[in-house]
Write a sequence for this structure.
């Protein structure tokens, strides 16, 4: 007993002496105790202002009620050094609380949140390029621990660095099971107390998001979706409930550096909401997120106006646009933001025209999107008659042949210029992206050329520049150096060719690409 | 002499007795006399408020100085009945002048100005559909009367119902000649008094616009362009000069019902102006045009944000988008406005990659644009070594083979549903537009099918619906009815086929289309 008291005193002294330490882009969290009676979700206002020493701007952060008289504040510090905070609340017991903490440099595997870079691309906050290779498991966090942990193991071994996932459970073909947890207090299926959140639901969700982060995946969190159809009613809540829900989600989750906000999946299929509603919901997220995470919205057949200032990048469903780089590039022109084709149909075998692509066709879409200077998302819908688990909806295991090829593409991209690939000579059907004069990816898609007469658009190319050419088999995942060096010579007003008019030999098979790099 | 006085008195009495009469969407014009000294272009403010009897809203209209002490007010009345006006001016002699006139029904060939209808299409104010088949003669009004009148004769015999044309003269390859008139007082090439307009220049311009109107052509008037390169300096005037110029053009020309405002050609190639400048210039036109004519802006390689509220339709240059209906349709999705591909490369033989399409290729672009639910513009750049007159720039005569095919297309469109053609089952590579259940155009482009298995997307089709099919040879300009009737039977979740799985026979040649109409 004396020993226990001694240790306890030691612990208290240590805690008082050593300041709280959190790494840059990590999560600072503090817990406050307050009343559990009444309805803290709506009765209590709690915010805190976080201020770094040295005069950098403060950030206001909303706290949230986590049940059982526990209130929390979470914050993702974006600069190293000393920080302090002070709380504001309508409850005296939660008001004017203060604290300090120290922010240290990020660990090597922590690159911070992903931001837009150079109009059309992404990078982590530390400057590391983020080349999006996304996938989708809409309802994976609603499947119970065994399957959810299997999904995490699958993702750990996959090429994917972003996962699209819904907050709300899903009611759709191949996903009719009840979820273990619901976001609101009340009784399923429809007797909800929309004024009270279920902390257990959100504790579970945020644990899964943190686990994705530790595996290097961004969580593209879908805040609303139409796949409820009134079964629970989360697709048709009142505006005040929608707004309070968004504020609660942002207060809980904005400190997770790997969160992206996807306002909706197939927003235009949610007939209960108008475009003005979506504008309002976007602006609530923009205004309340102190960390300005990426924001977009995914369409059914009608695109949201992605030129709106609160949209950071375009999240697009279109199964045909990435069949052709000259289609895909048009969205770049229209929106001048990064373009992510988050849904391009699925590798699978279900009897839906959007769900039975071959792996070859899905991989083609990734490469076409790449040479359009855009990004593509994967999805898999193979029927599993034994367990009804389709990756697209529930997660589990991947059985398709595309992920290995996407891992290969990811390696090619990781070896590409850090500023991203942009179309070379767009609107001329060249199917080429890169950095003029330095680096080119040419993709032939379904075409089966036996040779390619070396030709580069004139931009930043000079007579005598020397280039190496490699032939990439995107399906067999091989890269072969073409012998010799190609030396630029002006051909016409638009193009340089090799001085000996040399051609690159190709095997006459589909799904091939060229990588052309300038030699020093 | 007595006889002359008698007639003069008669005329004066008649003028006093009979009210001025103008047809609906015609031009009411009144002339006021005022000072010719000082600088009336900048010293004198003159506006008038036009009010119809019966309580409909008034319109404020700017007057303009036309030289020699003459001030004019022009107005296009949009409703029949009695109208009155009262002037406002900082000059007492021009202030508080009043007048009345009567507006009668429009003549049968006067359909009013063109407006946007049903999001993606156009119609005249009287409801008549406007199916845009445009062409371009950028500098035709700067070529002198002989050539200009030849251009008008050519247009009269052409299929075109819209002409893109520049206010300012053009300094570009194959167009280096000095214009007969300049828009400002002063001395060419660069000694301009930018505070004084040249009324003769604008009188000439408006006469040409009126002549186009009488031939049934809309004048898509390009207000700025980069093809000056400092030779005269109209591409790099100060903002105050740009703004005054726009106000003067609008005051003179907005009463012409066939005017469209094209803020610029290749706006992004005018490096002296920023995007904010274009926003401002658009808003000046929007605010000062009492008749709200169509407004757009044409791009080089960077698209303007056509979602801006002051843009009525998207005017796009892209030579590749209309090679593929699934490309072209993406602009509709992004902008939700009528899409006009005003520059898609040219039928011709000049040594520029944008100026040597075959006629077949240009006609293909029109049909692809049509089945994407968009509109396309023609252009011709055949070299004329004898006179250096290329249609694209100077007008003159048409020598290409596409206009006859565009006349054929126009007849097909005139026989199509009045509400316009929209893509059927977009993003599925169907290359089909129409009205679901009623009317379909299927276009095969470069493909050479020998048969087409009858299939319609399910939207608004029922079992037993009966359809007639015609094969259209878009090049040879023939339409052949396929024998028999096709009777709809459900095939799968997306499609109806013929109940006997009957196919349509085709000749196995490119440039063919189908017209499918439901039988009563």
């Amino acid at each position: 007993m004396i020993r226990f008291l001694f240790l306890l005193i030691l612990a208290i002294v240590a805690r008082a002496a050593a300041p709280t330490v959190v790494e840059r882009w990590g999560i600072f969290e503090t817990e406050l105790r307050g009343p559990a009676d009444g309805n803290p979700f709506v009765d209590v206002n709690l915010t805190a202002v976080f201020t770094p020493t040295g005069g950098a701007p403060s950030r206001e952060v909303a706290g949230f009620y986590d049940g059982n008289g526990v209130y929390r504040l979470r914050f993702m510090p974006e600069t190293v050094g000393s920080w302090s905070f002070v709380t504001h609340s309508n409850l005296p017991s939660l008001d004017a609380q203060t604290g300090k903490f120290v922010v240290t440099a990020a660990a090597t595997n922590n690159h911070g949140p992903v931001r837009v870079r150079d109009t059309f691309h992404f990078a982590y906050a530390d400057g590391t390029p983020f080349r999006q290779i996304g996938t989708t498991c809409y309802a994976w966090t609603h499947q119970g621990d065994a399957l959810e942990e299997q999904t995490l193991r699958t993702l750990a071994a996959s090429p994917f660095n972003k996962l699209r996932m819904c907050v709300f459970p899903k009611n759709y073909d191949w996903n009719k099971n009840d979820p273990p947890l619901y976001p609101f207090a009340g009784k399923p299926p429809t007797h909800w107390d929309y004024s009270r959140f279920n902390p257990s639901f959100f504790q579970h969700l945020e644990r899964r998001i943190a686990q994705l982060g530790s595996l290097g995946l961004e969580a593209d969190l879908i805040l609303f979706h139409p796949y409820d159809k009134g079964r629970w009613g989360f697709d048709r809540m009142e505006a005040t409930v929608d707004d309070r829900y968004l504020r609660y989600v942002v207060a809980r989750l904005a400190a997770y550096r790997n969160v992206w906000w996807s306002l909706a999946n197939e927003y235009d299929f949610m007939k209960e909401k108008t475009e003005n509603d979506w504008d309002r919901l976007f602006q609530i997220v923009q205004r309340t997120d102190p960390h300005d995470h990426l924001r977009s919205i995914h369409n059914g057949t009608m695109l949201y106006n992605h030129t709106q200032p609160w949209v950071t990048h375009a999240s697009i469903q279109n199964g045909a646009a990435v069949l052709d780089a000259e289609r895909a590039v048009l969205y770049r022109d229209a929106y001048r933001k990064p373009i992510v084709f988050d849904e391009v149909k699925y590798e699978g075998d279900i009897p839906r025209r959007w769900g039975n692509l071959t792996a070859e066709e899905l991989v083609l879409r990734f490469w076409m999107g790449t040479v359009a200077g855009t990004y593509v998302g994967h999805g898999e819908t193979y029927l599993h008659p034994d367990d009804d688990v389709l990756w697209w909806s529930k997660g589990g295991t991947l059985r398709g042949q595309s992920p290995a090829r996407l891992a290969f593409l990811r390696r090619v991209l990781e070896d590409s210029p850090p500023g991203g690939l942009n179309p070379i000579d767009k609107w001329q059907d060249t199917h080429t992206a890169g950095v003029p004069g330095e680096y080119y990816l040419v993709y032939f898609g379904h075409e089966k050329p036996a040779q390619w007469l070396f030709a580069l658009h004139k931009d930043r190319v000079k007579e005598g520049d020397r280039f190496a050419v490699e032939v990439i088999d995107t399906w067999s995942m091989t890269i072969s150096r073409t012998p010799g060096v190609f030396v630029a010579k002006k051909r016409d007003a638009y193009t340089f060719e090799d001085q000996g008019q040399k051609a690159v030999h190709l095997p006459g098979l589909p799904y091939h690409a060229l990588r052309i790099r300038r030699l020093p």
